[in-house]
Amino acid sequence: MDASHTVAGERKQFDFTALTARERYKLMIGTIIPRPIALVTTVDEHGRINAAPFSFFNCLSADPPILAIGVENNADMSFKDTGHNIRMTEVFTVNIVSFAIAEAMHVCGAKYPRGVDELNEAGLTAAAGIKVASPYIVEAPAAFECRRHVTLELGKSRQIILGEIVYAHYGEGIVDENLHVDPAGVDAIARLGGDTCSTIRDRFEMLTPKL
Ligand SMILES: Cc1cc2nc3c(=O)[nH]c(=O)nc-3n(C[C@H](O)[C@H](O)[C@H](O)COP(=O)(O)O)c2cc1C
């Protein structure tokens, strides 16, 4: 590959400006790990439920409380159902994916036609949103109801959608009265490169040094 070369000590280097989109994708998703998975629930303009996983996802600001998802278009440049529904309704719900619902999340990642309720296909339970039209998933350890804050159009095929969290749901015993969220209770899974996922069951504490 022209865009890469090996230097002394076997380090590899890549000129990202000379790589294809596919090559950049492979390096990025294999390297920027672990990525949390948002199982995003939306409704379309007819109120039909949709669910799909997104690992281009993270928390970007707490004040205002903003999270982001990266949504690619379909190959023919049409919007994925999630992108379409957020455009139409201005809301979405991010459901955190625990190990217990990993398989169900994967079912939701299949390319069902618009209008098919993936939660139904996956055996997950939708509950009505409190502040938004999109439902949350009862089996998810946590869920954030979001209003679309701003959409960044990155070229013709990718949108980054920022959502402001307006309501949060937690399963029993996951968050205590001091707002400490128990990572073992969340038991989130993460996406690595390719089809590989991981758990967050191996943890350690690190205190920031006090100067
Ligand atoms: C674990 C996982 C992570 C994914 N992450 C993304 C992502 O970050 N962005 C994206 O556009 N598609 C992602 N996908 C693919 C979408 O989930 C898939 O295209 C889905 O069919 C879209 O559904 P929709 O058309 O109902 O929105 C991911 C799939 C899986 C299984």
Describe this structure in words.
This protein is an alpha+beta fold and 211 residues long. It has a single domain, classed as Electron Transport, Fmn-binding Protein, Chain A (Pnp Oxidase, Chain A, Roll). Helix content is 17%, strand content 37%. It has 5 helices and 14 strands. It has helices at 21-31, 81-89, 102-108, 118-122, 183-186, and strands at 4-7, 11-14, 35-36, 38-43, 49-54, 57-62, 65-72, 91-96, 126-127, 136-137, 142-154, 158-170, 189-191, 197-199. A 7-stranded antiparallel sheet has the order 5-4-8-11-12-7-6. It has a 3-stranded antiparallel sheet with strand order 3-13-14, with no helix packed on it. The protein has a two-stranded antiparallel ribbon with strand order 1-2. A hairpin with a 2-residue loop joins β6 (57-62) and β7. The longest helix is centred in the first third of the chain and has 11 residues, at 21-31. It is globular. The termini are far apart. The model has no long low-confidence stretch (mean pLDDT 96). The site of flavin mononucleotide has 17 residues, from β5, β7 and α2.
